[in-house]
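Record pair follows.
FIRST:
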Amino acid sequence: MGRMKSLLMMGLIFVLIVSLVACNNTSEKTATTKPAANDKGDKTEEVGTVNIGYSGPLSGPAAFYGERTLNGVKMAAEEINDAGGIEVGGKKYNLNIVSLDDKYLPNEAGANAKRLIQENKTPIIFTPHSGGVFALQVFNQQDKFIIGAYTSEPKVSEVGNKLTVRIPPRYDGYLAPFTDYEMDKFGKKIAFLPTASQYGKDWSEKLKTHWEKEGGKVVYNSSIDFAKETDFFTIVTNALKEKPDVLFIGGASEPTAKVAKQARELGFKGGFIVMDQAKLDEMKVVTGSYDVLNGAIGVMPLVESSSPAIPDFVKKYKDKYGETPGSEAGLNYISMYIFAEAMKAAGSVDDAEKIQAQMQAGVDNTPDDVKTYEYTKFIDGGFDGDLEVAAIEDGKIVPIKIK
């Protein structure tokens, strides 16, 4: 009798285990598809899910920057989903953003990308720093995923990686207008205090070459590791001892603004060349007003742009996130729309090579009402459009015409 009870108990346990496994398998299967409804509310088709990866700084000194790049991607994806998703090969798909924190570290970005590919099969992975892009370029062609490269570093497009999409314009287009403005307004002696990232080093090298070519002199050349340093008193003091007319500063907006503010507190009255990663309007949040940034030149703040889609985008972003959007949000927002259109043109949501081959179609087919930037071409691995430059004069944004 005891043996019979034991066998019955084991049988019940076995049935329970099989039932649980069946439930789990059903759950996993339905996690990537869901019934879609027609106009009458009848369930008619399955909607697939395309996972889009993101690896960027979501903690630490650059978190402000990383969160806003991610916000742009997420906002576009949610709008696309709310409008019915994308139809590719006769099937509907929604976009699902899977984000991981890399703390602004290239090795972490590489590890995150491997995880996103293995666990989520992401055909596209956004990363908002050149160090992360270079780390991903080591294996993205082999693993067959596109890098959504939010960096203006020209080298990411020059290495010949056929699955990299550079989102912002190349920064070397800013060298001449930035230099001309600051030399004309303040003088030819410059001190370098940019971010210590590879991106900062490359920017510095190109600016130094151009500045000296135009007859200028670099009187101090150093950099700041924003991941480790939060008080810039010593390095700014050392730079100002060389009596520069201009400071070259840049990196994420928040720490860059703190460098400018500290320079003013130490008596600096010259101009600032602001690397394009830092945004003037986002720096204003830290400095309290544009007055601290008088004499600065940088990229045009998104809210001041002439694009007709900006007012509606700004309103939607404010409603959603409770703040004014910057370039990070705007550029990643439109790029997500372009990627979605490229998938539609390619007839595939997972073939990275086919999607990459249709990036121009993605640019051409992007709706006008979401064009936060007026891109017209996809060329040499990146989006191309007119550069918009601005300076701060008398506490106000002033457009600067590029010659």
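SECOND:
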Amino acid sequence: MALKGLDIFKITPKTNCKDCGNPTCMAFAMKVAQGAIALDKCPHLSDEVKAQLSEATAPPMKTIKLGVGAEEHTLGGETVLARHEKTFVSKNLFAFTVGDAMSDEANEAAFASTVVDYERIGERMYVELINVKFGGDSARYLELVKRAAGLGRTLILSVSDAAVAKEALELTKGTRPLLNGASAANAAEMAALAKEYAALLGVSAANLDELYDTVAEIEKTGFKDLVLDVSSASAGEAFADAVQIRRAALKNNDRTFGYPSLVDVGAIAPGDEDMQCALAALFTVKYGSIVVMEKMSYASALPLYGLRQNIFTDPQKPMRVEPGIYPLNGADENSVCAITVDFALTYFVVSGEMERSGVPVNLLISDAGGYSVLTAWAAGKFSASSIAKFINEEVAPKVKSRTLILPGKVAVLQGEVAEKLPDWKVVVGTREAIELVKFLKEM
């Protein structure tokens, strides 16, 4: 049973020192109870108290790390079933599959998934994991493991043969892969391997009852870095299992099922890329922490990563870019300036069209609270005064050009901005970003 705010408040220093970033110890305790902040944010709690309460205050779903270094990913840590209740914590990861039972052509087509690599609103979109599936030919399998490891992605080693698994783990030592091959038949042996090589362990079973018992047996060994493989013969069964596992953990606080889930949609709909994409979208929403496909193409990636970014973005925190001067198309201090707000989507849309024009432009990003142009203007965060202050303090000392393009949607500001910036020629730009190419070329 998770502790309530008053229970946590009783063990705080009650000094209201604000060292945790909260105004009072009571506010701190309430946030810890809600899972909004960690217990260790209070520097005055003893190690004994932290150890005593850490499990009680931890999220019902365990947070685990997969991979290392730049390829380290966080799984789990969720506290709610629906995004409107509270922000989701850890975005799901995508994987493509290669295997010794697959043809050379199929493996090459899968490896080609690594070309999917682009940026959307400041986030890198690529296939984070490679699933290497064992089909019986150990020599060929290990060669594929070597090749996949050389690509710099974190691996899923889908193998239930302990001897082959050990060799594969030797090849990936120090990279913290996911060893996906534990079952009721080999749970102890696979858990020992995962522990020895500091890997995560994927657990599967014929049904949820068997899965629950197998996880409980592995937990008795003290190993708890687990992922629950809910892949099934049908999409309906896999979906039902994923939902029941998540509900058991979050609603019933059953920590035996409090682990991230993996679903192999490539196994559910082999050879059908469109169906795999549809199922990947389903499990992105509910509740595949890792979604495995046969391969990834841009046709699948664009909708899937767009969906994932929307689902796993905090709706209470505007997506912002850093205010400043962004030279585009080789712009220098003599190039024309164009100003807009720091809302990330506005920046990427506007900068993309400006780059497409080929015209050198200094794109000025003003601090507008992360709002869109009209919203920031209505809120008083993108006004003639704020624009003039930003230009005088941050831009004028660095740029010789004195031509400033305003967004067309705030044309009403032209006169006032011109008054506050008498040395600048203030021009009203286009209302829509798509019109910028023609506007800049003609200008």
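COMMENT: The chain has a mean pLDDT of 93.
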